[in-house]
């Protein structure tokens, strides 16, 4: 297991790993961004594989893993642009740009937002489990946000136990996922506020990096 490091930002501590090929001009960098409820360990098998040829950076998003959350901002602390800026600061701090970003689910949305804000930092973007377009009527949006937030806040154990059943056919894997969800229970409700409409074509018009969407 790679050593977890910590970066002090304005209002949080961001946990991350930095492994693989040592920083050098010829070494390209991969940044793996996990999905909601997971942490930097989600990509451990991929990290071990690609670390032979690349520098690998893996953050735990705020409220996930060992990364903290602000004590006084509530769900506002989980706005997409704010969370993406955490990763932007990490990339800048490590002097790693330009990087290849790999994101799963909400991590893919994060990658798109990073590319929108700072296309100069992104060499390429590979995302999977991330919707190219997701939209619902406003009334349904409000009801679903209220319902999901209520379940995730009022009864997290039952909610995440139910969700974990759909992640694998293997009981021990479902239990592992459940425990990971519980560790991130303060952050997951905030992820429900990531914009409901995600359009791959609505990014920065000046961004021209390759995009792989699976």
Notes on the structure:
- This protein has 214 residues and is an alpha/beta fold.
- It has a domain at 5-134 and 197-213: Rossmann fold.
- The chain is 36% helix and 18% strand.
- The chain contains seven helices and seven strands; from the N terminus they run E-E-E-H-E-H-E-H-E-H-H-H-H-E.
- The chain has a seven-stranded mixed sheet with strand order 1-2-4-3-5-6-7, sandwiched between helices.
- Helix 2 (80-93) crosses helix 3, helix 4 (138-154) crosses helix 5 (156-164) and helix 5 (156-164) packs antiparallel against helix 6.
- The longest helix is centred in the C-terminal third of the chain and has 17 residues, at 138-154.
The beta-strand count equals 7
End-to-end separation in angstroms reads 28 Å
Which bin fits the share of residues in helices? 25-40%
CATH architectural label of the domain at 5-134 and 197-213: 3-Layer(aba) Sandwich
Q: What is the helix tally?
A: 7
SSE pattern, N- to C-terminal: EEEHEHEHEHHHHE
Which CATH first-tier class of the domain at 5-134 and 197-213 would you pick? Answer: Alpha Beta
CATH homology-level superfamily of the domain at 5-134 and 197-213: Alpha/Beta hydrolase fold, catalytic domain
Radius of gyration: 17 Å
Give the rounded overall mean pLDDT: 83
CATH topology tier name of the domain at 5-134 and 197-213: Rossmann fold
Strand order of the largest sheet: 1-2-4-3-5-6-7
Largest sheet: 7 strands, mixed
**β content, as a range?**
15-25%
Q: Which ranges are low-confidence, i.e. pLDDT below 50, for 5 or more consecutive residues?
A: none
């Amino acid at each position: 297991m790679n050593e977890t490091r910590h970066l002090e930002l304005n209002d949080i501590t961001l946990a991350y790993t930095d492994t693989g090929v040592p920083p050098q001009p010829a070494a390209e960098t991969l940044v793996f961004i996990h999905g909601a409820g997971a942490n930097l360990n989600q990509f451990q098998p991929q990290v071990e594989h690609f670390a032979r040829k690349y520098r690998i950076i893996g953050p735990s998003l705020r409220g996930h893993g060992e990364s903290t959350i602000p004590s006084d901002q509530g769900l506002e602390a989980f706005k997409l642009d704010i969370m993406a800026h955490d990763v932007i600061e990490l990339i800048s701090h490590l002097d790693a740009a330009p990087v290849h970003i790999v994101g799963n689910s909400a991590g893919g949305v994060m990658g798109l937002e990073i590319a929108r804000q700072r296309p100069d930092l992104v060499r390429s973007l590979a995302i999977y489990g991330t919707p190219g377009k997701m939209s619902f009527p406003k009334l349904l949006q409000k009801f679903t946000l209220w319902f999901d937030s209520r379940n995730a806040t009022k009864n997290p154990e039952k909610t995440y136990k139910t969700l974990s059943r759909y992640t694998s056919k293997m009981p021990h894997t479902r239990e592992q996922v459940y425990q990971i969800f519980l560790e991130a229970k303060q952050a997951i409700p905030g992820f429900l506020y990531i914009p409901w409409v995600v359009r791959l074509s609505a990014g920065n018009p000046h961004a021209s990096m390759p995009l792989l969407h699976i």
